[in-house]
Design a protein that fits this description.
Elements lengths: L10 H22 L4 E3 L4 E3 L10 H12 L3 H14 L7 E3 H19 L2 H14 L1 H4 L9 E3 L5 E2 L2 E3 H5 L2 H11 L3 H15 L10 E3 L9 E2 L6 H14 L2 H17 L2 E3 L2 E3 L2 E3 L5 E3 L1 E3 L4 H8 L3 H18 L5 E3 L4 E4 L7 H13 L3 H17 L8 E3 L6 E2 L5 H5 L1 H10 L10 E2 L5 E3 L4
The structure holds (3S,4R,5R)-3,4-dihydroxy-5-(hydroxymethyl)piperidin-2-one (IFL) and calcium ion.
């Protein structure tokens, strides 16, 4: 292998990341403790799952990040708040997918890092409240919403992300409790989707939970297709399930054969008709950028590099990559960016897979551009237009900011002893479910 390029001293960057994170955390504690979101411009509070009732989302998403940063006093405060206040006995419909990746995953990661028993109890409690979405479904494909207090399910018009992004969180609950129901229900839904692939081996992205019928023709590696593919690989990586690997390989080979396009030396993944392969759109969601990391994790390193090169071209052009990019013209189809983490997610995965310093350089640029454009009075704000001078901000900070990019930067630049750099797993919400070194 090429001699590892003399890597620069990244410690000052890691210290900056930790300082900025704890600065934002202190404002959340002082002004919005227990709120799902802080409003970073005004310092106000914002609900995410249910209007009028927060359940401490940003705090739950922050615990493992704080722990990895060795901010142990802050971890203690957060765990105490959870033990004293967090209840899922809420008579309202919750989105099953978002509740899983953020709350089941956030609590499971907090338990993995701290060992506090109440955190596992709460992860099991909220997962149990999600199960009717699966068990009430005639196909095994979960409904999109469930009332956490009554178990009433609703909204069968769903998609492959929202039926297929559970195996990581549900799988560790099965592993840690011995109850296989979680794993089996998550895997069954993934099997149903895989078995409905088209002749070309591609997947449309919208599906009906009661009939099992496809509701559209378009295939995408962006939302709402992305984390279905991610979790096929993750289920194999975490639990060694050869079915999941076989399904992943079948679908990925088809994507690379029918859904990939090279243009000016860059690799892109257009939206195509899953039945005919016809290109339907060359718009690329910034969220699709995670796929460069997934390709590298799953042994397609050259393709992963090439796709990250494509998004890096966008980062070079725009500074902050727009929500949606038309890669035929490299123009911003949707000019906002709600502090999306995917470019940094893929940079970490590619750096772990290759050791190539270029990915730390690219992540540093992503961090610098986020600092410059999103930092505001009490935290970090999403952008409504990355092309404006300066980019225009919105008074909102999403929960994934507390779990994702700041954790990716910290892991890339700190070399923290609390993370096993050789054997680890981060969920699609960057929840650490394996590799904490207590
Ligand atoms: O998988 C996900 N999709 C959307 C968010 C980040 O853009 C986040 O919730 C997560 O990474
Ligand atoms: Ca993700």
């Amino acid at each position: 292998p090429a001699a590892a390029s003399a890597s620069r001293n990244w410690k000052p960057v890691a210290e900056s990341v930790r300082r900025e994170y704890l600065w934002a955390w202190q404002h959340y504690v002082d002004r919005a403790l227990g709120a799902d979101h802080i409003k970073p411009i005004s310092g106000g509070r914002e609900d995410f799952f249910v209007q009028g009732h927060s359940i401490g989302l940003s705090l739950v998403e922050a615990v493992d990040t704080l722990w990895l940063m060795e901010a142990d006093a802050e971890v203690a405060l957060a765990v105490q708040w959870i033990e004293d206040n967090l209840s899922f006995d809420v008579d309202a419909p919750f989105q099953v997918f978002e509740t899983n990746i953020r709350m089941v995953g956030g609590l499971a990661a907090a338990y993995h890092c701290t060992g506090a028993p109440r955190l596992l109890e709460l992860a099991v409690d909220v997962a149990d409240r999600l199960l009717p979405a699966f068990t009430e479904s005639p196909t095994g494909l979960p409904y999109r919403y469930v009332n956490l207090a009554t178990g009433e399910v609703s909204r069968p018009e769903t998609n492959i992300v929202e039926v297929g992004t559970y195996i990581a969180e549900f799988g560790v609950l099965s592993e840690w409790t011995g109850d296989r129901r979680y794993y089996d229900l998550a895997k069954r839904a993934m099997r149903v989707v895989h078995d409905k692939r088209t002749e070309l081996g591609l997947l449309p992205h919208d599906i009906h939970a009661e009939t099992g019928e496809w509701r559209n023709r378009q295939a995408t590696v962006g939302p709402p297709g992305d984390s279905y593919y991610e979790y096929l690989w993750d289920g194999y990586a975490l639990f060694g399930d050869e079915d999941l690997r076989r399904w992943y390989d079948t679908l990925t080979d088809a994507i690379l054969a029918h859904q990939a396009e090279r243009r000016d030396g860059l690799l892109w993944f257009p939206q195509v008709d899953a039945f005919t392969g016809e290109v339907l759109s060359r718009e690329q969601s910034v969220l699709a950028g995670f796929y460069a990391g997934l390709l590298a994790e799953s042994g397609r390193i050259d393709e992963g590099r090439a796709y990250h090169d494509a998004f890096n071209a966008a980062q070079e052009k725009f500074g902050v990559i727009p929500n949606s990019l038309d890669y035929a013209t490299m123009s911003a189809a949707d000019p906002g960016n709600a502090v999306r983490p995917e470019f940094a997610d893929a940079a970490l995965m590619l750096w772990l897979a290759t050791g190539d310093e270029i990915f730390r350089e690219r992540a540093k640029t992503h961090y610098d551009n986020m600092l410059r454009t999103s930092k505001t009075n009490y935290g970090f704000a999403g952008l409504t237009d990355v092309t404006a001078k300066p980019p225009s901000q919105e008074d909102s900070c999403p929960g994934y900011w507390w779990s994702e990019q700041m954790k990716y930067y910290w892991l890339l630049f700190s070399d923290t002893p609390r993370f096993d750099y050789r054997d680890n797993y981060l969920s699609t919400e960057a929840n650490l479910l394996r590799g904490a070194r207590r």
